[in-house]
UniProtKB/TrEMBL annotation:
Keywords: Acyltransferase, Membrane, Transferase, Transmembrane, Transmembrane helix. It comes from Comamonas guangdongensis. The keyword Electron transport does not apply. The chain crosses the membrane at residues 6-27. This is Lysophospholipid acyltransferase family protein.
Amino acid sequence: MSLIRSVLHMLWMAVTVIPYTIALLLAKWISGSSAKAYSVARAWLKLSVDSARVFMGIRYRVQGMENLPTDPGQGVVLLVKHQSTYETFLMPAIMPRPLAYVFKKELLKVPFFGWSIGALDMIHIDRAQGSRAFHKVVEQGKRLLNQGIWVIMFPEGTRVKRGEKGEYKTGATRLAIMAGAPVVPIAVTSAKCWPRKAFIKTPGMVDVSIGKPIPTTGRKHDELMLEVEAWIEAEMQRLDPEAYRQ
């Protein structure tokens, strides 16, 4: 049954992404604004999350929304635990401000989906460029944060298995410190239902916990990331204790 439900959800996403991409590109062309295009993208992402509940029984619950800044001009760097594709869809759907992802440029080649994110005001990088790629993140990240757009990054860099911890890289805290923006740590237990690289998903509840903003003024990037890592990993063990049992 889980296989059939997963297939149905994948087909639904494949069918709906086409008209939404066309609508997004038209919105960008007619208005000349990425904001209008983002609203279309957000609608499709929310549809994908809602359809995951309908087709596969994957639900979510969020705690800590009150921790998010309410000033519309306040830029924030969201640092999110990364276990599956689910949270990449979920975060824009639940966040009260527009988000800008930092992502590898190879995603731009994905039909329809890649064309959509390419039309949005986000940060795509070529990892092969090393330090030059980071300079691009800082340059564009500062601009977006100054506009009140929230930059979202996965500090582990890639999806990790349930109950495991990747290497927390300091690029996100470097950006936040240089931009003078606070960081917000977020724990997500998506792998309980949607394991990384898995086609078959299972019904269940995904917990999202949003931590309090951490000021970056006067902080060092490495010790700030250690604080973020400690909070996220402790919260993951609280939310999903079964995954961390020895």
